[in-house]
Amino acid sequence: MSVVDPVSPLGNTLVPGRHGAAGDGAVRIAERRCDLVQVFARKGRAGDVAAAMLARFGSDLPGPGHTFDAPAFSALWVQPDGWLLVAPRSPEGALAKSIKAACGDTASVVEQTHGRSVIALSGGRAAWVLGKLSSLDLHGREFGPGRAAVSPVAGLSCVVHHRDAAPSYDLIVFATFARWFVTSLTHAAEETGYIVE
Amino acid sequence: MTQGFRTQTGGRIDRSQTLAFRFDGRSYAGHPGDTLASALLANGVRLVGRSFKLHRPRGIFSAGAEEPNALAELRGGARREPNTRMTTAELYDGLEAASQNRWPSLRWDLLSLNGLIAPLLSAGFYYKTFMWPAAFWEKVYEPLIRRSAGLGRAAREPDPDRYDAVQAHCDVLVVGSGAAGLAAARVAGAAGARVTLCEQDFALGGGLLSAPAHGAWREATLAALAAMPDVTILPRTTVFGYYDHNVVGAVERVADHLAQPPPHTPRQRYWTIRARSIVLATGAHERLIAFPDNDRPGIMLAGAAETYASRFGVRAGSRALLFANNDAAYASLFALQDAGIAVAGVVDPRTESAGAEAARARGITVWADSQVTGASGGTALVGARVARRGAGGGDTLVVADLLCVSGGHSPAVQLASQGRTPLEWSEALAAHVPGPATLDQHSAGAANGVLGFAEAAADGARAGAAAARAAAADIPLPGAGDAAYGLLPFWEADVPGKAFVDLQDDVTANDIRLAHREGYKHIEHAKRYTTHTMGTDQGKSGGLVGAAVLAAARGERVQDVGLPTFRPFTSPVTWGAIAGPHIGQQFAPTRLTALYDWHVRRGAEFMDAGQWLRPAFYPIPADADAWASVLREARAVRKTVGICDVSTLGKIDVQGADSAAFLDRLYTNTFSTLPVGRARYGLMLREDGIVFDDGTTSRLATDHFFVTTTTANAGPVMAHMEFHLQTCWPELDVQLASVSDQWAGMSIAGPKARATIGKIVQDLDLSDAAFPFMAVGDGSVRGCPVRVLRISFSGEQAYEIMTPAGYAETVWTAVLEAGEEYAITPYGLEALGLLRIEKGHVAGSELNGQTTAADLGLGRMVKKRGDFVGRALSQRPGLTDPDRPVLVGIRPATRHDRLRAGAHLVTPGSTESLGWITSVTRAVELEGWIGLAMLRGGAARQGSRMQAAFPMLDETVEVEITSPHFVDAENLRVRG
Amino acid sequence: MIRIACPFCGLRDETEFAYRGDATVSRPPADAPIEDFHDYVYRRANPRGWHVEWWHHAGGCRQFLKVVRHTMTHAVHSVGLASSTQVVPPE
Predict the structure, then answer these.
(1) Chain A CB contacts of C60 below 8 Å
(2) N or C: at which end does chain A have fewer Cβ atoms within 10 angstroms?
(3) Is the peptide bond before C28 cis (omega within 30 degrees of 0)?
(4) In a domain, B592, yes or no
């Protein structure tokens, strides 16, 4: 299946090029096309799910506020006994199927590839730009690579994944809000300038 | 024009550069480092405005945020900003400012005749004067008041500048950068705390800026702070509010000191700062003294005159007289003398003081045990009358063009008080000081009642250490000075006359006494009756003086009368800053379905549906009007086939071993009996027995359901499920996930629906036998995965096709191509509504938070066995009353009459409403208008006639009460 | 603005949460008399002082938390899980 490439919910909202203020403080904004799968441990089966995920994918299931980078995906804690897996695009539904196959009835698996958009924000002033839209404390003492938080960004439900020290953030939002979200983000980034590739 | 009042040396201005500016159309010059006020004073401008109510001439009274008089309209056109305090407006080249409240000009203000009718404008004047007749208010009183009273004019065009908002966190927030604030920040920063320091001024240092002797300490401390990576310093940033849990609001004036902001730079930034601990080093406000005509231009707070001399190199007058009750004010006078201003003397209500001694040593005349009994001069001060206290007669006129006033200093406790710190009375200061804080909050320096730079810095260091939870670091402190204060509480000269306690609101001591006599004895009542402290300056210089006048009238002590509650905003904040980026399209989030671009290309008219932007209809050139489009679209569904984007439906993925049991407890119907591959219409009640939401639920596996909700209730239903799962039945094995965004949905409805999608849906047998009404199955369309549900909202044969959102347009286009031979027609929200009303399906207007299942004709969906949310209370007598309004259909007796939603149903000759119309539409299945209504005794009234009254349009229409099902009441078509 | 220390997510703004009312009442068993349901839905102590209440971390981990909040000062004494028993401090 999937002879057709799925269409991004962003349409033409992100215009490639350099925008906003000049200077060397520009941040980078891009859409990352990813596979997204939610995994929930069934009641009392968190240990079984963790064992299955470790055995099949070499992945730890991280605790609150943390992430784990497995070879095939990053696992982000999003709620008690609930994780969001983020992976490079693969054939439609393949990741969810492989997770379900590994976990069986110890886990509930929900395909969200089309339900969420991953917006990458990076650069030296990324925290400043993100701080206009998020009330998370992004200071290095409180947040950093390998951390994730579920918290509103631009007033919208969002998973903020601090991926690396650049810093790079993945901002994972509901797809039907993605255009409005990106418009808010680019608006906030005009002061520093931003680059869309 | 030359800066005739500028000193040759001294101050923190850059005399090497000249800035040109205009005030009321005249050109002047100033220097970098000036405020508009200091530059005007340097140019000898004394008259800068007219007062709010009485149009009295006013001059610059202060040198800071407490300014009551010197308000200007800054800039022009769309950037015109009224009520800007000249004392805080930073001068820039090309600045344009205009005085306010004068007509036709500042010097010849015809409305100053208001002064002659002042008795009419006393306390509570508008409650008394403008009461009757009512018609006069709009025609006479209001235009009069609008012209004569009021502040500046707001711009009429949209603000062209951008305003930003920032969320911030710190360990220690320090408010104020005077000696105490700088010391606190340095100690906290040295202890490793993350520190944010906010200063409302454009220059850091507070009172230190007027104290050249401490310049080196200031420089050294700022350098130390700059070297600390976790210390953030925000100049031009006013903390205006202190909220719960140590959250403060502040506005940074990023580009107010420029003619216009550089590209992409906001004019102002709204900071929301969350601080673990807060140090309030906000300083103190000098107080005025009430005496007759104490508002004349040339009368100024003593500390302000010192600031103009020491910080700005400006002589605020040529010959200065001081009226003060404390020794600190003498130091101000000496600074003026050192700046070359002649000194006329000092009037001091105290009999003896250290200050008087020091003054005499400088050859200054001191009138001890004396008071100022009046001021002479109209638009400029020419002198003041001085008399011994208590002794009758015998005024002396002292010639002076600058009268410096100091009634003492009130710690700036506004933020501490907002931050839940009780205030205590200091006898030494005759002012309120912060008591023990309840939050993690530390007042320091003058804000804490500690006077003197050395003492304030030491207090700041203590507060900084406490805030950082560290031992006090050993930081250098400024050298000690003379801390003599010796204040004698003195609020008002005891002579008759117009003695102001609030310059901005034109409130006099007599107004306070009048309020008291008329029963407004509580400080909060007196405030509102007189408007005392209600101006942009919030009574910073006269608030306590007014309270003291009220206390005297009540025969009580000032501390027993208290102060009105301090609330945000301590200083004015622009609407632009409050709105921030949330303007225009960014006002609130907009939600778009995956088919939005297709709808745009198709020329849809959009409408707001909650946060969603949905197609209302798709006009074509042949359509005469919107109704023509809507009726055309609806007819297509009834006659052949239509397609509608229903992606906005809420969708919830429910999994787990106990999913079926969970849904049984949430819905009035039973889902545990639903076979895999089938859907069921479900009804959900609130716990009080009222209908909450409806939708279809499909069973995908024994332990897996796909629930849909109404568009409006997608979020609330999810929260409702989570609440019950987590708090009522935590033992259940159920996992919930919102998949509203994962799946796009389209409804294909009409007699040719199956014929259409049958051509393109693969891997799924759609034959009536294999896929009957309410069947659910997975298949594919052009390689895209789809989930097909055979359900109908319109009453026609219909299917919903769900597909992962990224494939929506591919699938939608495939359906359109397949339906081409039937002239498949996309239909919007309006036609959708029309069709459901014809079919008698309830929606938001009927699910209005007041209706039960039985009211809506859905009683048969309520199971008789087993518990579910809302079961018990739905059986209350009030909800089972057979006389409750129930759902009926409505048609006008005369077919071309129009129905209106909201009309009340009455019997002829009666005014008793027996029900109301909830939804109306023009029909396609029938002729004319139809509607749904909630009607008492509705079942029995079917077939009878009533009147639909719409009093707002004075309209009454005779209507026929019918079944709510106008189309296919036997429900045959959906199974066809 | 109230700040609530979510046991999972840490200290977060009030705006991330949705208030869901009194957490001292609990849903009666299915066979309870209608009066019990009436009390569950309608009867509230409405205290001036400490109050145990539900706050839904709707913008975060989606958990219903038991928050002990002072209705006069908005001080938050403690935050617990739905399953926890929160101790109410003396006034």
Answers:
(1) 149-151
(2) C
(3) no
(4) no
